[in-house]
Each structure stands twice: as C-alpha cells, then as structure tokens.
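Quick illustration, no need to memorize.
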Amino acid sequence: MIKTKSSFRSRRSFKDYFRTKKGRSFGGNLALIIALSLFAGFFLFPVVFMVMNAFKPLYELMRFPPTFFVRDPTIEHFLSLGVLFNNTLVPLGRYIFNSLLFLIVGTLGQILFGSMAAYPLAKFEFFGEKTLNRLIILALMFSPAVTAVHNFLILANLGMIDTYWAVILPSFASTIGLFLMRNFMQQIPNSLIEAAQIDGASEYRTFWTIIIPNVKPGMITLFIMTFQAMWGVTGGGLIFTESLKPLPAAIGQIASGVSIARAGEMAAVSLIMFLIPVTVFIIMQSNVLETMTTSGMKE
C-alpha cells in the first residue's frame, strides 16, 4: 500500500509539531513558544487596553483603581464625536479631504522623487557619489525636530506657510525614503540594465520598465512608512487656517476641548488614529516581506 501525504500527516504526534530541523527537544521548543507568547502578550497589552477604554462609559474611565476590561460597553464617545463635528464651522468632509490630499500627494510624491533620486546613486558612478551616500546616512541621524526651524524658514521664504504645500513639500524630501529605495535598487543585477541598454532602451525606459517593477516591495514598504507618518500630521506651526487643517488636527482640538469631561472622546480618538495605519499595514504586510526579488540571479 502506497502511503500518501495525508496518511503521513494523520500519524504525526503532538510532539512532532514542536520539532524542528535543528533538532531542538520538545521541551526547548515549548519553552520558546511560551516565552514568545508572553512577550507578544506584553506588547499587545496597551493595544487591548486602548480598545477597552474607547468603549468604557465615563464613570468607568474615572474609576480608581482602573479596570482593564470594560463592564458596560458603549459607543457614546464615538457618537459624541459626530455631534461635536456637526457644531464646527468647517464641515467634516473638508477635514477628510485635507487628510486624503496630504496622504495621497505626500506619499506618492515621496515614492516618486525618492525612487528617481535613488536610481543614479545606486547604479551610476560619478564624482561625489560616495560623499552623497555618506551624507544620506548622516542625515538619518537627525530628528525631524532638529530641522523644524530650518524647514519653517525655507517655507516662509517661499511663501508656502498656511498652504497645503507647507505639509506636502517637506514630505517629498525624505531621507529614509531615499536610503530605502537606494538599498533596494542595489540588489538589482547590473546585467539587467546592460541587457536593456543593448536592446536600445533609454535611461527613462530602463527606469520605468526594469527598475520600478523590481523594487515594488521597497515601494510598498515606503508607502506604509510614509502613510503612517502623514496620517499623524496635524500641520501645527505651518497651517493656521481651519479649512486647511487635516482630520487628526480637528479631532485633537475637539477631543481636548474640555479636559476630564471629554476623556471618553479622547479614548475614541486614540482608537481611530491607531486603527487606520494598522489596517493599512495588515493589508499590505504580505508584500513587505517580498524584499529579495533578485534571489537566485547572479552577475
């Protein structure tokens, strides 16, 4: 009788699921799984606590000592946010439009300009190339707060303060985006570029038909990183007109209007601000793992 794969699987014992090719014992693998589960629970604790707080009534939020699980769940805080938005001078749709504008234009612009700037740095040799690469790595060490004053002065001289460009334009010049795309493009074999040039392809055609399709995982990774950064942008210090502010700025202003009385709204705001970027990451996480598009290819 020929044994099929299903028959082999049916005879596997419980301990077989904890055995690896490295030969670790059942007890060692079980201890590793328990330790990783404890670490996962430790990092998941604040997330669950935030979700619970968003659905707690106000008297549960003010209770001391605080309770972890919600006892009387309610959606009152989310409904209160809707009522507060109805009483604002600027409609909710305007805030949503501003946020989408920042997200779409800022994210696509960073991917486009970062890819175009990374291509010559990754695949061409020219005078000052090594110096530029060192400057890029050095720029990664600076916090955005360090360059905030310089960005403000540049935008003020360009007349872009209190406009959409005050938020969008600085997002194009992302050091981490340039560094990430350059590293991805360095993995592409030069033989592909040389083959395209032999076939008569121009540099622009080589970039769009050879380079871009092979760095899609890097572009998706950069998209997620940029989306998370742009989603939390409030435009503070750069945008003062209420009709130009994004949704996070409006939500923060409304929820923090009256300290303790709006603790529930603040909990609801925290959950909303957290769920959007996490949902985007979960949807695209499978593409982020595809980072080695040139595996098995040799020069």
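Residues 1-40 form one domain.
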